[in-house]
Amino acid sequence: MRVSVFGAGYVGLVTGAVLADLGHHVTLIEVSEEKIALINQRRSPIFEEGLESLLARSIDQGRLSITNDAESVVGSSEVIFIAVGTPPLPDGEADLRYVRQAALAIGRGMHGHPRQVIVNKATVPIGSANLVEVWVQDGYREVHGRAPSSEWYTVASNPEFLREGTAIFDTLYPDRIVLGADEAWAIDRLQELYRPILEQSFEPPPESPRPNGVTSVPVVVTDRISSEMIKYAANAFLATKISFANEIANISERVGADIVQVMRGIGLDQRIGGRFLNAGIGWGGSCFGKDMAALTVTAEEYGYQPRLLHATQDVNREQRLLVIKRLQEALKPVKGRRIAVWGVAFKPGTDDLRDAPSLTIIEELLRLGARVRVYDPIALDNLRRLRPDLEVEFADSAEDALDGADALILATEWPSFAEIPLATIADRLTRGIVIDGRNFWDPEAARQAGLQYRGIGR
Ligand SMILES: NC(=O)c1ccc[n+]([C@@H]2O[C@H](COP(=O)([O-])OP(=O)(O)OC[C@H]3O[C@@H](n4cnc5c(N)ncnc54)[C@H](O)[C@@H]3O)[C@@H](O)[C@H]2O)c1
């Protein structure tokens, strides 16, 4: 099938590369010349395990290409994905300007053959499929002075659930695929596009072997509004699960319970499930914060006060600063102290810094007058580039960050940090204070190594 994908970011690039690897002919449409140049050199502009080899293979086999000239390619695509960013505006509403630009370009390039399914893959506020329809018409009208025939296209919703760090795996072996459309032919087209995934009939690529037991993928076929809501509801539920764990952690700490044991104890209950129950400095990343904010705005627009959504966000806001309180208790004062921070990416396995809890912590440390030395295995270049305002020192290695520091804050639990012996951390820190924002280490082992250790909720 001929497919175009607007936006070669975390979602669009992975979706495009995977669909091309499955045999479709995919054109990525991107506005960033820097990204286009990198991808044409078979290099990935983002850090995502396995993506570069997947890209190279699809480009070399002639199934994947990239352009900035949307109008000349969209007209011949049977499926057009919109996977551009939908960042938050200051009031929490999603900024749809990039979606609008893409939809206008689709309208300008449309000529009626083939019949097209335009798919919102970006996370867009409820009702956005209608907006995309209007913008596509506007684009066509700009060129032709009249509206396009409604027979030529339809707008569908196909929200994305991939996780950065395991994006290829999640695209090939998703828990489900959600398709929202008002027209049966659009659903048929999308089922056809995804058939190799739905039926698990493809030869797994070397980058991502098929896990045992995956023989098919469930598909949820629904209307557009429900489909758009499914994405927000999923993220709100996951964020709430983490905030719930943090709420219980804060109570556990006061009564002397160990949150890690408590969450294991509840997570084994199949009605609850053990994932997303890790207490720590809370959730972040490109999606949860902005999607919670957008859903809250939507609820309020319709006269509903979403109390649970507000509580989830409040708990998270306070949780990020808990490590600073811990540090203040241990250091008294923080001013003039040297603090090492391990991990800046919002989670391990990615270089993404969007809404990373580490950034809130670093900002607060600097505000309090601390000297901050940071290390992250992947995300330091992004930190240099995106946050030149943060006056931090960049360490060459995790160990290097510790030298001369009074305390260590662990903000992102990169697995490689486990390779550094606790005794080394104790030796290198002048005061041996460790504030473990992810309950990464065993408290007893840390204390035995001579560290003054504090976790969250234990
Ligand atoms: N990142 C994730 O883990 C994830 C997961 C699920 C859903 N989503 C949703 O997917 C959407 C995209 O997220 P992302 O993380 O991939 O964003 P991103 O910022 O990594 O990528 C967006 C890309 O779109 C490009 N772009 C902007 N305007 C364009 C235009 N008019 N034409 C062509 N390209 C254009 C940008 O240059 C950028 O490369 C968002 O709505 C997000 O909420 C993201």
Characterise the protein shown here.
GO terms for molecular function: NAD binding; UDP-glucose 6-dehydrogenase activity. Residues 340-443 form the UDP-glucose/GDP-mannose dehydrogenase C-terminal domain. This is UDP-glucose 6-dehydrogenase. With 458 residues, the protein is of the alpha/beta class. It has three domains: 2-222, Rossmann fold (3-Layer(aba) Sandwich), CATH 3.40.50; 231-318, Orthogonal Bundle (N-(1-d-carboxylethyl)-l-norvaline Dehydrogenase, domain 2); 321-454, NAD(P)-binding Rossmann-like Domain (Rossmann fold), CATH 3.40.50. Helix content is 44%, strand content 13%. It has 18 helices and 14 strands. Strands 3-2-1-4-5-6 form a six-stranded parallel beta sheet, sandwiched between helices. It has a six-stranded parallel beta sheet with strand order 11-10-9-12-13-14. Strands 7-8 form a two-stranded parallel sheet. Helix 1 packs across helix 3, helix 5 packs across helix 6 and helix 9 packs across helix 11. The longest helix is centred in the middle third of the chain and has 32 residues, at 224-255. It is elongated, with a radius of gyration of 24 Å. The mean pLDDT is 97. Bound molecules: nicotinamide-adenine-dinucleotide. Nicotinamide-adenine-dinucleotide (NAD) binds at residues 6-12, 29-32, 35, 83-86, 98, 101-102, 122-123, 160, 162, 164, 286-287.
